[in-house]
Amino acid sequence: MHASVLDRVTSFFNLFIFFSLFSFLLEDDELNLTNHTCGLLRPIPFCFQKTRREEWEQVFEKQSKGEITTASEEQIRELSRSCSRGSRGHGGGESMWDIKPSSLTGKRPSHSNSHGRHYEITGDDCPQLRALDIEVGLANITRGSMMAPSYSTHANKLVVVVEGSGHFEMACPHLSGGQSSSSQRRGRGHGGRECGGEEEEGEGREEQEGEHKSRGYKQVRSRIKVGSVMVIPPGHPTTLVAGDDKNLAVLCFGINARHDEKVFLAGSNSVLRQMDELAKALAFGAEREKVDRVIGAQTDAVFLRGPSSRRISSE
Ligand SMILES: *[C@@H]1O[C@H](CO)[C@@H](O)[C@H](O)[C@H]1NC(C)=O
Ligand SMILES: *[C@@H]1O[C@H](CO)[C@@H](O)[C@H](O)[C@H]1NC(C)=O
Ligand SMILES: *[C@@H]1O[C@H](CO)[C@@H](O)[C@H](O)[C@H]1NC(C)=O
């Protein structure tokens, strides 16, 4: 347990660095991550044991702006540039730490249909990401559409809303998992009945804001808007629904990405479609034909028509 906490802290530290480095890769102006450079070293004097205490204090006295300080965009660009020059003591020549900038949205989307597009940079494209065991993705969900409910088998996802608004729903298997980000955002009002995706069987659903329990899963629901951050642990089925007026774009960091698999619970690539007949019969009480009809109804994958899109003419 402690090891995994440490893992997460380490991952987050790595992630943080990449958050800074990658901010310049994104072309979108509205994505302003330049403020996130921080005085991480100040609280850990034990790293500098060989230094005299007074010197140490002199050095770190200047670092008095708090844990999070501001760096200009130029400073961050310069940092990134010096990384890509390999000037970090890794010797000359090609190093795996040579960062070649690439644009997340400049390449072909990994998934695309009329309901949305998904771009990603994985360890295959960028060895630094593999070393950090992280992948970066950008999902741009068309207004009124949704992302099919899915869960990650191993990765912790950190999702940042960079454009638009909408809502997110997550099924949380731990009843005590109440610290999840959305519980703090309760009470903002919501747009009536909302779709929780096809992993729900509809029974015992309550028309309630926020969270409710069903079969040992606690449903967590929240409105999201630009700047909202969601932390989604592995094994937590999650769906994102774009608002009706604008596309919802989210930047997504997958931590522990190496052995991760994304399992979709709805859509034409749904795991339910791959269940064999006996498993289906056990899992669903209903007749086989009915189950197949329900599961097979969806022809799109990854990005689907949203719960309220019938009201909107498609683009
Ligand atoms: C990002 O924020 C910084 C500090 O607030 C500002 O100086 C800079 O112009 C902003 N960049 C963009 C692209 O909005
Ligand atoms: C960045 O920091 C500056 C000064 O601390 C603040 O005025 C500005 O709003 C911040 N920008 C963002 C995008 O958070
Ligand atoms: C999302 O897609 C819309 C429509 O194509 C586009 O205008 C917008 O810039 C995209 N957002 C991002 C963050 O890529």
List the helices and strands and how they pair.
Elements: H1 2-22, E1 37-38, H2 53-61, E2 68-69, H3 73-84, E3 111-113, E4 116-121, H4 127-132, E5 134-141, E6 145-152, E7 156-163, E8 165-172, E9 212-214, E10 217-225, E11 229-232, E12 238-242, E13 248-255, E14 262-264, H5 277-283, H6 288-296, E15 303-305
Antiparallel strand pairs: 1-2, 3-4, 4-5, 5-13, 6-12, 6-14, 6-15, 7-11, 7-13, 8-10, 8-12, 9-10
Keywords: Signal
Pfam families: Cupin_1
Protein name: Cupin type-1 domain-containing protein
Structure explained in plain terms:
With 315 residues, the protein is α+β, with helices and mostly antiparallel strands. Helices cover 20% and strands 25% of the residues. The strands form three sheets. Strands 6, 8, 9, 10, 12, 14 and 15 form a seven-stranded antiparallel β-sheet that branches. A six-stranded antiparallel β-sheet has the order 3-4-5-13-7-11. The protein is elongated, with a radius of gyration of 22 Å. The N and C termini lie far apart (48 Å). Mean pLDDT is 70; it is low at 19-43, 175-209 and 311-315. Bound molecules: 2-acetamido-2-deoxy-beta-D-glucopyranose (3 copies). The site of one 2-acetamido-2-deoxy-beta-D-glucopyranose has 5 residues, from loops. This is Cupin type-1 domain-containing protein. Residues 80-122, 173-218 are annotated as: Disordered. Residues 205-214 have a biased composition (Basic and acidic residues).
